[in-house]
Amino acid sequence: MAKAGFVTSITRQSEDFPAWYNDVVRKAELADYSPVRGCMIIRPYGYAIWESMRDELDRHIKRTGHQNVYFPLFVPRSLLEKEAEHVEGFNPQVAWVTHAGGEELNEWLAIRPTSETLIAEVVKDWIQSYRDLPLLMNLWNNVVRWELRTRLFLRTTEFLWQEAHTFHATEQEAVDEVATGLEAYRSVAEDWLAIPVIKGRKTENEKFPGAVYTLAVEALMRDGKALQAGTSHMLGQNFARAANIEFLDRDNERKNPHGTSWGFSTRMVGATIMAHGDDSGLVLPPNVAPVQVVIVPIFRSDEDRTAVAGAIKPLEAALRDSRRTLPDGRTEPVRFQVDWREETPGFKYNHWELRGVPFRLEVGPRDVAAEQGMLVKRIDRSKEPVPLDRLAAELPDRLDAYQREIFGRAVAFRDDNTHRIDEYDDFKRVLDEQPGFVLAPWCGDSACEKQISTDTGATIRIVPLDQSDEPGACLRDGRPSRQPALFARAY
Amino acid sequence: MAKAGFVTSITRQSEDFPAWYNDVVRKAELADYSPVRGCMIIRPYGYAIWESMRDELDRHIKRTGHQNVYFPLFVPRSLLEKEAEHVEGFNPQVAWVTHAGGEELNEWLAIRPTSETLIAEVVKDWIQSYRDLPLLMNLWNNVVRWELRTRLFLRTTEFLWQEAHTFHATEQEAVDEVATGLEAYRSVAEDWLAIPVIKGRKTENEKFPGAVYTLAVEALMRDGKALQAGTSHMLGQNFARAANIEFLDRDNERKNPHGTSWGFSTRMVGATIMAHGDDSGLVLPPNVAPVQVVIVPIFRSDEDRTAVAGAIKPLEAALRDSRRTLPDGRTEPVRFQVDWREETPGFKYNHWELRGVPFRLEVGPRDVAAEQGMLVKRIDRSKEPVPLDRLAAELPDRLDAYQREIFGRAVAFRDDNTHRIDEYDDFKRVLDEQPGFVLAPWCGDSACEKQISTDTGATIRIVPLDQSDEPGACLRDGRPSRQPALFARAY
């Protein structure tokens, strides 16, 4: 690289994807490791991306009738152990408070790995009658699951998330609610983060501990590995029975309500990086980009600087007044920044490309003379001269088009890397040579699923919801398969 | 009470203030205790109030150049113990994680009681040069301080808050930043929550452990007790030295930066309840009220119900299109609800009065005939017939006026209950007979301050900033006093 002295170099994505990811996260200043093993610090640029997806999901959650609440960080040991499958699933990952206020505690307190058991215990006082249902709650909080191997955003001991918890009078209402949660995740992933996802059902091996079944949305990263982008659980009456929640129904019978829970976490920041990024760093969808356009003034003399500043000033005023209309009808101004730092243009291009800013506008003395700027698109580095007096008015549409383009590119990538396979040898070869999603027939047996995973490192991500019956023979043992399952190596 | 069967009765405020407070919090469904000792559950109505003040403060914080970040929940013991005064102040209240992931930890981890020590340790890598300063960060998170006696919102083992942490090249910049934080709290308290506050400096006894000095805003509750509504700390170079943070300044010298930190918590929900509430329950300022106007249809027959519904429908449409302009220029629609539940009007009046909704509109068949509704103001129960076709247009101004009225009433209450006292006997008598703020001369000696507290239960809340020198004789020992201190019994 000619300007090696000026740039923050990162590992090439094609050379070493994990090293590329780590470089992007740290050098774009999204997050960093902390003095506490496995816990991360989310820096301003990373937190702004999280705030954007959090706020978008929060709007969905509220529009669909859920209310935000807060429940304690601690879960007493006796409560965590009430639901047998649940405790078995989470116990090995729990962090325990044993001492507090200068004393040893009588009962250990778990740092919540999730809040099902605590919430079930509390709502039994709130749910007396069918009139108290449905109860539609959502929590934004931090949870802790002790992890041995951690990766920033993707797998950290502490992470931020949203956990919805709902209770319903009938099974059908709970089934519908599980779908409502999943649709919220599809919408945020696809319409906000420009990440195409496939909806499906987890296998028995992979479902949430204590759930009747778990639905998930799965996305494909640019290295061909899958990432779970949100899960929605049908809890049935499991937690309600364990906590003795009963309500008097319309028919005067006492019943246990049917529960659901669903969650979406800071790992989606990692998904956004890995779904769109390239050798130069982040490629951010405009909806979530903290800066949507960066203006880089180019000058050598004070005289040039004055001329460029004079041309940029009215543009800034116009951008401050700009309004972009979002999918839900809200409007917001274009988020822009002018980079007047004392660095070379090359340094600045690199700086903002690393940070995935959708558009860069270069304005030099010759541009000023022509009353234009050079608009560079991050996704393909295409350049186009644009009249300065038209830019603010055009940018909202250009950002919309960019948002569509980045989604379209991700859909095409996903489709190009989804393989339909029937034979086990082909399956193994494709996973090594063209990693991606593999749709393949599976007999439905848990032991067979585990053996495939042991043999190949690939797991069943989901059995996709949106497919009709397609009888076949299990790729490993030849037993009958009703529908293909979606396999992949995964984060 | 004639309608005793229909109403949720609460203790009268004048009879037993603490019982009144507890009734309001629990019966208006703001919060409740949890199965974890000292930890609270914040219910939807209480959380919506918290979200409103949180979002308003977040806008202030961002407007003044601070960026949101996230730091881990855990602080390793060795870090917490780096600043001597700090550890002494917080150690007795810390909750400790000793086991995690099925093993005993080599080093105990504190659940953060606050994050100064962890942040200082991390930013030493980020602050190398004066160009890296100022570093202006803010965190929204949960902290834990083990408390023996807890009260919902006011003193809980876990609470939600915001903690800002900043680092500056010069002492003066840090001094200015401490004032910036304090002004954010004044603005949210007065302009958003309608709670008048006094700015001042904490005494040495009361300052933050590890700080050079602490500023605070103090508010007066309706029982005459004071409540600290936010604190802003000048940390000087204390934490920076303990963590070895050094930067290369413009003059090529290596220096420790000057730090500040400031915090505002869920206890301000408690302050909002106690600053405005009355015998019927909450009285909420419109800016923060989750529901600003409730419409109560009144009918006995199906025919009446149809007529009333027909009159309310166009009003609902008009309210959905309404826009109220907020202090910062943003606009938002009026938040309204129509209460069609199968309950008596009396039950509904009581329900919404308990919840502090600023306006109630009663619409019955006779109102419909007259094309009007009866608008009832929560703060004084005054009634006024209002034409239904004008209400949506008038409500934004009426809400503004209500916001001013509730603030004016609180200022008058505070002024009526602030006493200027010179003699110790008068001081003791006033605290018992007319509890409130007491401005009294004090010699500045810590031992004397503690003796006054032991004698009377009153503490020095602050030495107000906004007063000129006023020499006097200390109310307890007669030694010279430069300025009066502000005393009160306090939460």
Report on the structure:
The structure is a homodimer of 491-residue chains. Chain A is of the alpha+beta class and 491 residues long. The first copy, chain A, has 3 domains: 260 residues, BirA Bifunctional Protein, domain 2 (2-Layer Sandwich), CATH 3.30.930.10; 106 residues, Anticodon-binding domain (Rossmann fold, 3-Layer(aba) Sandwich); 71 residues, Translation Initiation Factor IF3, CATH 3.30.110. Helix content of chain A is 35%, strand content 27%. Chain A is built from 14 helices and 27 strands. Chain A has an 11-stranded mixed sheet. In chain A, strands 18-15-19-20-21 form a 5-stranded mixed sheet, sandwiched between helices. A 3-stranded antiparallel sheet of chain A has the order 4-6-5. In chain A, strand 10 and strand 11 form a beta hairpin. In chain A, helix 2 packs across helix 6 and helix 9 packs across helix 12. The longest helix of chain A has 29 residues. Chain A starts with 16 loop residues before the first helix and ends with a strand. The N terminus of chain A is likely disordered. Chains A and B meet through strand 2, helix 2, strand 3, strand 4 and strand 5 of A and strand 2, helix 2, strand 3, strand 4 and strand 5 of B. Strand 5 of chain A pairs antiparallel with strand 5 of chain B, so a sheet runs across the interface.
